[in-house]
Every structure is written in structure tokens, then in C-alpha cells.
Amino acid sequence: MNFMAEMNGVLVLGLLLMMISVSGAVKKQSMVETNRFLVQKHLNRLNKPAVKSIQSPDGDIIDCVHMSHQPAFDHPFLKNHTIQMRPNYHPEGLFKASKVSTLRAKKKGPIPISQLWHFNGSCPEGTIPVRRTKGEDILRASSIKSYGKKKFGTVPKPKSADPDMATQTGHQHAIAYVDGGKYYGAKATINVWEPKIQQSNEFSLSQIWILGGDFNSDLNSIEAGWQVSPDLYGDHNTRLFTYWTSDAYQATGCYNLLCSGFIQINNEIAMGASISPLSSYQSSQYDISILVWKDPKEGNWWMQFGNDNVLGYWPALLFSNLKDSASMVEWGGEVVNGEPDGMHTTTQMGSGHFPDEGFGKASYLRNIQIVDESNNLRAPEDLGTFTENSNCYDVKLGNNDNWGSYFYFGGPGRNPKCP
Predict the structure, then answer these.
(1) Which residues, including other chains, have CB under 8 Å from residue 251's CB and lie 6 or more apart?
(2) pTM to 2 decimals?
(3) Rounded to whole angstroms, how far apart are CA atoms 182 and 373?
(4) What does residue 358 show for φ and ψ, rounded to 5 degrees?
(5) Total domain count for the chain?
(6) Model pLDDT for residues 45-61, shown as the tens digit of each residue
(7) What is the distance between the alpha carbons of residues 291 and 185, in angstroms, rounded to a whole number?
(8) CA pair distance 107, 329, nearest whole angstrom
């Protein structure tokens, strides 16, 4: 009798374990299906119907989307927005020392900066090129909600009283900056490289920041430049990017066109697409020019790439502290230091070489200008510099007739002085 009771107990226990196992498998399968559904739903939201699609040599698909169907108009405040097809005013006084966006270390004809998808086609008038988001792009992010977003603490605070800020946020910078005035835009020509990234959750970029508000709570930021970000793009290509936030990266804003906000009017340049050609050490040097300025009439913040590609604008209604003007402008580089193996990352900033090496070896930003209250471009006054650890990444200012205000910046990351 005891034997039969024990056997029945074993059978019951086995059935219970089997039911738990089946229940766990069903729940896991349900979670997978739910996640797949949510990813597809997000893809449907981001990838608008295309008039034409272009396969880029780097594996990207560029969709030519009708201008009125772009992601910007998913924003509740932009549902009935009338697209402003051109800025009312351009800033006066563009630096005219260089008429081409390409510098050559060797004396050959200039090769214009392009994007790789241009080799296989172009988008028709009335459309904008949008880099198609793939399922694996979203799955690389820590969550669907965080896809396409920067983390808090990515803006350098030159006058921060906290020397451990870089350690806490994992971000390091080498920048030049101005603050204490009213700024209505900024311009710079930025050397384009392909820095080496040690691990996929790190990135390296060179950019302009237009800033207003409190760094910890309601910071408004408009950003533009180039970056290498394996997590965001799935490769190590150097890409044009933009970013914006109106609440210190907490809930608003995103990279490129990965949320509603920026309104693009240009059919030639794709946000997030690969840039070509790139600078190489002791050889040909290539750079891009970026201008961001506030339209004095409408109040929108416009962006121009190169000498004549007006890309579009961030509507004034997106911002609070940038409604009138910016209170700080920064130019320079940023990396994520993931501290692999408890040591400083070997992720490079700029060319991966220190500024003392100079032209053809170090990365630079030249022809640095700000837009003043009269909508004039002029050289910034009292340009300061900042880096969390100059043994890892550094910055060195200069000024001459050809380049105006400029600086070399960057570094290799981990080295004997930066363990």
C-alpha cells in the first residue's frame, strides 16, 4: 500500500513538473510572439510607404518617401503643419576661405563628399531619402523604447563641479565651446574619419551641439555631425547624423528620423547614411561642413550640409529653452567608454591620434563660427576647451587666415598614460 502511494505521488509530481514546464514554454513563446509583434509595429511606424527604394553598396536600403508622409508628421502638434520649403533668411558672412569641402594632402583635384547610396540611384523631387529600419536594428537596442535614443549625460559639462561625471556616465569628450551669450546658430567644417570601436555598445562621433536649459532636467539640444555606432547601425561605417532633445534625453528626441520632429525637405542627403570618401592617415583628407541656424522670422532651427544642401528644420514648437536662442555651443568629439575588462576602452576619437600630430594625422574642426543676434556668422569670442582626461583624448586650439578659429582633437583611448 505504501509502495502504491509513493508511486502515485511520483506520478503526480511528474505531472506537476510537466505542467510547469509546458506552462513556462507557452509563456516564453507568448513573450517571443509579443516582442515580434511590437517590433513589427514599430517598424511599420518608422518605415513609411516608398515611392522608390534604392539598395546601397553598404547594405542599407534607402526609401524615397513622399515629403508629406515623413515620420515628422506623426507628432501630434505637426499633424496640420505646413512645410516650410525654404528658410526665410540665410546667415550672412559664411567663411569664404575654402570653396570646396575637400582638402587634399596630395595635390590632386578635389573629390566631393558623397553618400554611398548615391552610387545606385537618386530620389525624385517631392520625396526625401529615408534609411530603412530593419528588425535587427531594433533588437540590438536594450528595448524598443530606447531604440534610436541617446542616454542621459551625453553632453559635456565644461564647468561641472563633478570630476567623476565621465566615470558615472561612461562618456568622454574633447571639445571647444562658448557660453554666457545668446547664440542663434553655429557652423564648422569637420574632418571625416573611421575611428575603431572596441565593442558594439560604444560609439565615436564628431559634432556640433546647440544647447539651452539645465543639463540635468530640461536641457534642449540640437546636434549634428558624423558618427560610428555599431549598436545603432549594425556596422562600423562613418555616417551623417542628427539628434535633438527637449528634456535632457529623458523622453523626447532621437537620432535622425527615428521619431517625429525634424522635417526634411532635401531629396539628396539621407540622415544616418554612410559618408564617402574618408580621411586616411598621412594621405588624403576629407571634411564636411555643417551649419545650424535659427530662422529669425519663423523661429525654426535649420540645418545645411555642405555649401548648398539645406536639409530641413526642427520646428520651434519642439523646444522651450531654444525658443529664443541657445546659451551654449559646443564643437568636438565624444566616445562611450564601456571600460571593457575594467580598463579604459581602446575606442578611438577622431583619427585615433592626439592633436599634437597636426594636419593629415589628427582630426580637426575648422572655420568655427557662431550666428549672432543680427543673423551674422562670425568667429566666436572666448573659445574655451574641455576634456575629462587629456591623456586619453585631447584638444588643441589654433587660428589662422585660411581656417579661422579651429582645433585639432581626439586620441587613441587606452595607452600607457590612459590605462
Answers:
(1) none
(2) 0.89
(3) 7
(4) 75, -160
(5) 1
(6) 999 999 999 999 999 99
(7) 7
(8) 34
In a domain, 7, yes or no: no
The amino acid occupying position 314 is: W
Does residue 174 sit within a domain?
yes
Half-sphere exposure of 315 toward its Cβ, with a 13 Å CA cutoff? 21
In a domain, 261, yes or no: yes
Name the DSSP letter for residue 49.
P
Contact 364, 55 (CB under 8 A): no
Domain assignment of residue 294, yes or no: yes
The pLDDT of residue 390 is: 97
Torsion of CA 36, 39, 40, 43, to 10 degrees: -160
CB burial readout 122-141, b (16+ within 10 A) else e: ebeeebbbbbbbbeebbebe
The DSSP result for 85-140, as a single string, is -S-S-PPB----S-SSSEE-SSSS-----EEGGGGG--PPTTEEEEEPP-HHHHHH
In 224-309, which residue ranges form alpha helices assigned H by DSSP?
230-233
Alpha helices in 215-293 (DSSP H): 230-233
Of all residues in the chain, what percent carry a pLDDT higher than 90?
77
- AA letter at 153: G
Burial of 164 (0-12, 13-18, 19+ CB in 10 A): exposed
pLDDT digits (tens, 9 = 90+) for 197-252: 999 999 999 999 999 999 888 999 999 999 999 999 999 999 999 999 999 999 99
DSSP designation for 196: -
What are the strands of the beta sheet with 171-183, ordered from one edge?
Answer: 254-255, 239-245, 220-228, 204-212, 326-336, 171-183, 384-387
Domain that holds residue 124: 47-410
Cα(71)–Cα(67) distance, integer angstroms: 9
Q: Do the Cβ atoms of 292 and 186 come closer than 8 Å?
A: yes
Residues assigned a catalytic role? 223, 334
Please list the alpha-helical segments (H only) found in 189-332.
230-233
Dihedral of CA atoms 385, 389, 390, 395 in degrees, nearest 10, equals: -30
Alpha-carbon distance of 419 to 416, in angstroms, equals: 6
Query: What pLDDT does residue 217 have?
Result: 86
Amino acid at 352: G
pLDDT at 164: 54
Closest CA to 59 of 204, 239, 205: 239
Contact 348, 204 (CB under 8 A): yes
- Lookup: cell for 336: 562611450
